Amino acid sequence: MRTARLNLMPTTLAHLDAGLASPAALGQLLRVTVPASWPPGAYDRAAVEFFRKQLLAHPDAIGWFGWYAIRRSTPSEPAVLIGAAGYLGPPDPLGCVEVGYSIVPEFRAAGFATELLHALAARALQAPGVVRVIARTTPGNPASIKVLEHCGFKPAEADSEAGMLTYELPGACAIGAQPEDR
Does residue 59 lie in a domain region? Predict the structure, then answer.
């Protein structure tokens, strides 16, 4: 999947195994530069192990778990792994999908998180049966709240996870930016 500046790649078991081995192994497999600040935010070892466990249990669900955000190369810079995102799994029985995202510090505040979230939310809403996309953040993360609001997410009425804010994007609120291709 492509956006204006990013290549988005769904994670596979090979990617996750490489990432667990080392950032250098992941970069070699993806053929990109991996910043020294990798991994970003909440995309820690526990998250990688979660996605790995899910893919082992549901090998046909690639694309419903982790995604890598790769800033495409420019004439003066190589392709760089700038973030990770994903869904916590395929849609639940009510048609809800939860999405999360993290960008490495040196690429924050440049619109990449918004670009990434727009693409993943649009992809989810195009899937059969999906009627709602949610995302969670902490009250102390104004940058993430701003990204969610830029993407059309609204605060949800109730939150099941203490200390977290839940935002939702109902299917009726189709966002303007669509992935360039699938």
Answer: yes
For the segment 19-41, the average pLDDT, to the nearest whole number, is 96
List Cβ neighbours of 45 (8 Å cut-off, separation of 6 or more).
20, 39
- Give pLDDT, residue 170: 74
Q: Sheet of 132-137: strands edge to edge?
A: 6-10, 66-71, 80-87, 96-103, 132-137, 165-170, 154-155
Cα–Cα distance for residue pair 165/72, rounded to 1 Å: 32
pLDDT digits (tens, 9 = 90+) for 137-167: 999 999 999 999 999 999 987 666 678 899 9
Q: What is the mean pLDDT of residues 80-84?
A: 98
How many distinct structural domains can be found in the chain?
1
Alpha helix locations (H) across 37-128? 45-57, 112-126
Domain that holds residue 57: 6-173
Q: What is the pTM of this model?
A: 0.89
CA dist., res. 139 & res. 145, Å (int): 8
Q: Which of helix, strand or coil describes residue 85?
A: strand
